[in-house]
Task: inverse folding
């Protein structure tokens, strides 16, 4: 194993571990600002470090500090302390582990070696996801049961019933998808979606499986325990459900686990149905072959985007009444100069690339970075859909939720399998 | 109209002489005949007093020139179809023996009699569950008796377990542990509240669950009991106005209006036209506020938090208008006996209109999220259904009663303040489920806005206070320069507005239903007795009927949909 191999392994694992974690901060921020946007209010915008508010991101920092320094209570009535402490870890770790198999870029070819861009290169792919995500609910059930609290038990029961009802349609909608792709390996699935259908439509999952994508997304929403499926938590009904007795970082693990799960299931939806890291109409080979024009386009595009972004910041980030030596304007100046320095740095890097490194391995790495960017943007947008739905829909009732799972989604998923099977058989 | 009720009563009970007091007909009945009379009043189709509004008692211990016994129980009944109001008074010789219960005739009597027992110590023979209700279970004595010291507080040191009560309720429904053990399961007892995110106050909903289905339910109230009625006996009439703010704190000004309306009608004061229109405008404005709060909270209970902001933001903005007008956001205390505290400020029409448009926009935004929403429909349609008979029996009034299809609204049926001259509709429901209760409130918001717009167009100029020195403070000019004026001012402030001796009941269509006040006056400037008829006390008394057999989640949204306000419920 060469030094390069080890470096790439380290990078992949770091990506798999830290990207979901850093996305927790972004998603919490997006949830709050998104909610505020839907609800006609401002959202968190006061927390700051020396006047820098980073659009509300500093609030997360404050929350983190608060949660770390809060007293970590294990209530006296709890009999199984081990399970009580184990439960949040389980929720968090299983959520994080799911991301390990999701490819975030095409296979990197360096010389004669190929590196699969997954944290853990495995060809079981989607099966790993199903296994691990199913395990995550044990954490919730365990938390509800070991809390020794009636609300907790009800929350745990709801979670258990919900997962059983929704894993089946989820699995069945995957069956038809896998029949289309002919593989369970997520990397292969992602590569498959780089093709073009009839020569002009990207062969993304949602085009091939229009019914399957709906079933899968609904089931994925149910898996992440978010509104309209947040019955296990059911804030207004069973107070906080399974995590009613948790405080401090143990609560924070549940909280972060929820957002990691949301990120991971968005990533999986993107991987399975929305072309993964693929940029539409630009396959990996096309990009590698035309690396120079792509870079030149980027070099032109970056300043233009930065210009409009800076203008948007300047327009909005100011005090809307007279204030001597407006601190908001100072803040804006800092943002704008940071933005432009970032652009300058990127331009210099791209320029160095154009002059010295064009062709060969550098092209491959450039494409890799572009694809990572594409993957993250798509996942981010999918996460926004999660936020959007949460702040639009009310909650289901326990029995209605199961009715939809068993009476609507299950037959639809089966129907989808038959239709898909018929089409595949008749075309092959 | 009431003449006919007198005739009918005379025909049925020749020896009873009905009297007319304001809108109400009053009859005195001997305790022995009480059951017969009450049964006939309820079941006789010509009388059909299907609504038991209130039961209260009067303690005549210190009443000047009192003849007869110490206690008297007063039943307030209503025939909603013909708008007959009837008060049945019956003396109680021995409070320990008390009276026979009427809880077999009206469901509302269950809690109403418990309250009389709690406050006056009058027992009701045959009552299924005669316990204290507003005061805690360790309380000793009966606070509304005249010999109970007003400054004597009592602390509760232990919660009431309620286990006996819920087992009795289970037994009444024919469920016992053996049926449960047949299917290898156990019943779970779960407390929702007193402090629970969905109780919006402090109410204890004690449930026996099979899975998530509620098998039996017993409720405990009184966590917010602060002795409004006892305090009122120690205040002059005008001093009570700030206390009424705290009854239904979501529509504080409506309580102010209802209270002063009751006093004014006994005094026979006709307030100025401008004051009447002001009361209509403000009353309807607060009806809108009350519904906004109720709907916002109800949709939050359902998990639709965005609705909360669309509705509550407008309520919040409305408070700015209210504070410009009254100086306070919530505790408005804006009315006085004989008129209003002051006139509207300059330019109020524009502010009000802007606010109404904002409310319409917020409500329409919220309706867009709700009206076509399948989840909302599934959650609310057909759940926690209240039949019209049950609603009447339990004394439901206001939007909750109208949602069952009964078109009873005091603004139409017993109009006051020119309500008969306004063009507005009374929305009614068809099934009495949660959906109907929500939608009736949504519709009433638009109807109230309609009334406000008409009233703003028609409001006349002129004084806002009557020129009657029995109630109105003399102008400062007279107070400073004339001894008569000074004496008048002094008397009104220190002794209060003097009301003629007597007893009367007057009611007002508040946002939640019929808000009634039962007064006993001994001719002084403070009420001898003041009893509030809070609409949501009776709504809560029928709560268990609605949620038994439904699920926890339904019980939660049902509690929001009947709009329980702690301040009014517990007084």
Result:
């Amino acid at each position: 194993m060469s030094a390069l191999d080890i470096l790439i392994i380290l990078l992949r694992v770091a990506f798999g571990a830290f990207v979901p974690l850093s996305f927790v901060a972004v998603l919490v921020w997006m949830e709050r600002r998104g909610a505020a946007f839907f609800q006609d209010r401002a959202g968190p915008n006061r927390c700051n470090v020396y006047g820098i508010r980073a659009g509300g991101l500093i609030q997360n920092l404050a929350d983190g500090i608060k949660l770390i320094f809060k007293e970590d209570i294990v209530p006296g009535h709890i009999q199984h302390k081990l399970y009580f402490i184990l439960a949040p870890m389980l929720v968090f770790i299983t959520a994080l582990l799911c991301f390990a198999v999701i490819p975030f870029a095409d296979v990197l070819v360096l010389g004669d070696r190929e590196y699969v861009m997954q944290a853990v290169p495995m060809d079981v792919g989607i099966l790993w996801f199903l296994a691990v995500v199913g395990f995550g609910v044990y954490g919730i059930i365990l938390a509800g049961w070991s809390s020794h609290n009636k609300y907790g038990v009800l929350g745990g029961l709801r979670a258990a019933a919900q997962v059983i009802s929704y894993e089946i349609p989820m699995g069945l909608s995957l069956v038809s998808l896998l029949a289309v792709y002919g593989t369970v390996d997520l990397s292969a699935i992602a590569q498959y979606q780089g093709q073009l259908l009839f020569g002009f439509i990207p062969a993304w999952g949602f085009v091939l499986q229009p019914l399957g994508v709906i079933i899968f997304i609904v089931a994925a929403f149910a898996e992440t325990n978010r509104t309209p499926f947040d019955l296990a938590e059911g804030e207004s009904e069973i107070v906080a459900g399974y995590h009613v007795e948790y405080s401090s970082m143990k609560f924070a693990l549940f909280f972060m686990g929820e957002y990691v799960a949301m990120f991971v299931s968005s990533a999986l939806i993107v991987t399975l149905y929305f072309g993964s890291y693929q940029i539409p109409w630009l396959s990996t080979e096309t990009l590698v072959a035309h690396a120079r024009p792509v870079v030149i386009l980027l070099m032109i595009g970056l300043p233009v985007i930065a210009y409009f972004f800076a203008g948007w910041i300047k327009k909005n980030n100011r005090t809307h009444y007279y204030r001597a030596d407006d601190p908001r304007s100072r803040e804006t100046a800092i943002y704008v100069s940071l933005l432009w320095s970032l652009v300058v740095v990127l331009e210099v890097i791209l320029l160095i690339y154009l002059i010295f490194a064009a062709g060969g391995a550098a092209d491959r790495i450039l494409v890799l970075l572009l694809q990572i960017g594409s993957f993250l943007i798509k996942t981010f947008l999918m996460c926004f859909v999660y936020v959007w739905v949460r702040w639009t829909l009310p909650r289901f009732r326990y029995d209605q939720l199961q009715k939809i799972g068993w009476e609507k989604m299950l037959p639809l998923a089966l129907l989808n399998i038959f239709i898909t099977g018929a089409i595949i058989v008749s075309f092959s | 109209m009431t003449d006919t009720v007198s005739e009918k009563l005379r025909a049925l009970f020749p020896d009873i002489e009905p009297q007319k007091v304001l809108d109400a007909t009053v009859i005195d009945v001997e305790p022995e005949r009480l059951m017969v009379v009450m049964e006939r009043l309820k079941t006789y189709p010509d009388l059909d007093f299907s609504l038991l509004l209130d039961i209260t008692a009067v303690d005549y211990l210190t009443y000047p020139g009192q003849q007869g016994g110490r206690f008297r129980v007063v039943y307030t009944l209503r025939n909603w179809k013909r708008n007959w109001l009837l008060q049945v008074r019956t003396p109680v010789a021995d409070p320990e023996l008390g009276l026979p219960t009427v809880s077999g005739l009206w469901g509302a009597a269950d809690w109403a009699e418990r309250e009389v027992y709690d406050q006056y110590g009058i027992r009701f023979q045959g009552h299924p569950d005669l316990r204290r209700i507003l005061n805690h279970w360790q309380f000793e004595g009966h606070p509304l008796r005249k010999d109970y010291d007003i400054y004597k507080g009592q602390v509760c040191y232990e919660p009431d377990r309620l286990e006996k009560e819920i087992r009795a309720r289970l037994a009444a429904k024919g469920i016992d542990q053996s049926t449960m053990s047949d299917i290898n399961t156990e019943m779970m007892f779960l407390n929702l509240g007193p402090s629970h995110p969905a109780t919006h106050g402090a109410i204890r909903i004690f449930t026996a669950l099979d899975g998530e289905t509620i098998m039996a339910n017993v409720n405990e109230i009184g966590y917010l009991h602060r002795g409004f009625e006892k305090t009122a006996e120690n205040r002059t009439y005008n001093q009570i106005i700030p206390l009424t703010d705290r009854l239904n704190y979501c529509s504080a000004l409506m309580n102010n209006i209802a209270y002063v309306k009751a006093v004014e009608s006994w005094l026979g004061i006709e307030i100025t036209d401008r004051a009447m229109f002001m009361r209509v405008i403000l009353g309807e404005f607060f009806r809108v506020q009350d519904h906004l709060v109720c709907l916002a909270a109800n949709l939050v209970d359902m998990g639709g938090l965005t609705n909360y902001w669309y509705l509550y933001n407008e309520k919040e903005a409305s408070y700015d208008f209210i504070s410009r007008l009254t100086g306070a956001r919530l505790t408005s205390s804006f009315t006085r006996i004989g008129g209003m505290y002051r006139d509207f400020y300059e330019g109020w029409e524009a502010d009000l209109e802007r606010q109404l448009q904002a409310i319409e926009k917020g409500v329409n935004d919220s309706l867009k999220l709700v009206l076509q929403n399948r989840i909302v429909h599934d959650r609310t349609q057909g759940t926690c259904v209240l039949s019209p008979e049950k609603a009447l029996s339990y004394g439901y009034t206001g939007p909750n009663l109208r949602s069952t299809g009964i078109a009873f609204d005091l603004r139409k049926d017993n109009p006051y303040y020119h309500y008969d001259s306004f063009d507005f509709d009374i929305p009614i429901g068809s099934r009495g489920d949660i959906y109907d209760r929500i939608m009736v409130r949504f519709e009433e918001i638009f109807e109230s806005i309609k009334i406000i717009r008409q009233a703003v167009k028609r409001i006349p100029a002129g004084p806002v206070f009557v020129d009657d020195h029995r109630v109105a403070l003399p102008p400062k000019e007279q107070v400073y320069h004339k001894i008569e004026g000074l004496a008048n001012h002094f008397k009104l402030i220190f002794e209060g507005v003097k009301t003629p001796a007597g007893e009367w009941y007057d009611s007002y269509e508040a946002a939640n239903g019929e808000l009634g006040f039962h007064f006993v006056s001994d001719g002084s400037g403070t009420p001898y007795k003041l009893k509030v008829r809070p609409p949501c006390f009776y709504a809560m008394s029928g709560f268990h009927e609605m949620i038994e057999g439904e699920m926890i989640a339904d019980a939660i949204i049902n509690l929001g949909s009947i709009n329980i306000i702690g301040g009014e419920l517990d007084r």
Remarks:
- Chain A has 15 helices and four strands.
- Residues 3-278+359-426 of chain A form one domain.
- The mean pLDDT of chain A is 85.
- The interface with chain B takes residues 35, 38-41, 150-151, 154, 227-228, 230, 234-239, 391-400 of chain A (CB under 8 Å).
